[in-house]
Amino acid sequence: MRARRASSFGDEASAYARHRPDYPLAALEWGMSGANRPVRDVLDLAAGTGKLTEGLASLGRSVTAVEPDPGMLAELSRLLPDVPALPGKAEDIPLPDESVDAVFVGQALHWFDLAPAFAQIRRVLRPGGAVVALWNHDDESVPWVLEFARLVRTGISRGFADSEQPLRADGFGPFEQDRFAHTHRRSIDSLLATVATHSHLLVASEQDRERTLAQARAYLESVPETGTGEFDYPLVTTVLRARRG
Ligand SMILES: C[S@@+](CC[C@H](N)C(=O)[O-])C[C@H]1O[C@@H](n2cnc3c(N)ncnc32)[C@H](O)[C@@H]1O
């Protein structure tokens, strides 16, 4: 089931590219400042359609994208033709030893087989380089967001954000966590299209998927903040970073 969900994204690659949020640049900068070396070469691991890749490139970094799903990788190359994009998995990264200053992972670390993935991330990082994992999730301190998230069960994608079990990785210092406020300009249609790309709905039966989306639409139409056109959907970006020893 986990493998099916981890590989469920590609069929919906262009919907994914249109509807998933990007990441706040302050969160990317905080992640990079976890390295104690200048950050020039960056790997975006599990790059998907390039949401994070684009932010890293906009900060002037030389970014390489690695992604196992051919549909996602093709969409990334179409959107960001200048970024080197390689097929590959976290557990077998197709880059030379000590070739990057930071490895970024957007909304994907929880899919990895962690021990081999961290061994590979450590191998491709230069000494003092940083691994940075990010998750965008709903800002559930906002009451209507909390209720919407409960209806569509988006909480499932928080990954290791706020995990009670601190993340550890051999050969890395302790993980530090910070959070960044973020928003995503939405309409009811675009928000529901995003929810439809969440992995638990991609693998749900057609009937369950339609029922969940209809309930969510009825709720959003009844809420003053969302019922009358475009709105800023409140998100939090949680970032974990650790330095290679
Ligand atoms: C939720 S998407 C995130 C994509 C992108 N990083 C973003 O922030 O939009 C998760 C991605 O992880 C990829 N993935 C799943 N398992 C992986 C693995 N073991 N190694 C590398 N990538 C993996 C999927 O193919 C998918 O593109």
Task: Outline the secondary-structure elements.
Elements: H1 2-6, H2 13-19, H3 25-32, E1 41-45, H4 51-58, E2 62-67, H5 70-79, E3 85-87, E4 100-106, H6 114-124, E5 125-138, H7 143-152, E6 176-186, H8 188-196, H9 199-202, H10 206-222, E7 231-243
S-adenosylmethionine is lined by residues 6, 9, 20, 46-48, 51-52, 67-69, 72, 89-91, 106-108, 111-112.
How would you characterize the overall build of this protein?
By secondary structure, this protein is of the alpha/beta class. It has a single domain, classed as Vaccinia Virus protein VP39 (Rossmann fold). Helix content is 36%, strand content 24%. It is built from 10 helices and 7 strands. Strands 3-2-1-4-5-7-6 form a 7-stranded mixed sheet. Strand 1, helix 4 and strand 2 form a beta-alpha-beta unit. Helix 2 packs across helix 8. The chain is globular, with a radius of gyration of 18 Å. 41% of the residues are buried. The model has no long low-confidence stretch (mean pLDDT 90). The site of S-adenosylmethionine has 20 residues, from helix 4. This is Class I SAM-dependent methyltransferase.
The percentage of residues in β strands lies in: 15-25%
The general outline is globular
List the helices and strands in order.
Answer: HHHEHEHEEHEHEHHHE
Secondary-structure arrangement, i.e. CATH architecture = 3-Layer(aba) Sandwich
Secondary-structure-derived class: alpha/beta
- The total strand number stands at 7
Which strand order spans the largest sheet, edge to edge or round the barrel? 3-2-1-4-5-7-6
**Range of helix content:** 25-40%
Distance between the termini: 35 Å
- Highest CATH level, the class: Alpha Beta
Q: Classify the fold: give the CATH topology.
A: Rossmann fold
Oligomeric assembly: single chain
Average of the residue pLDDT scores: 90
Poorly predicted segments: none
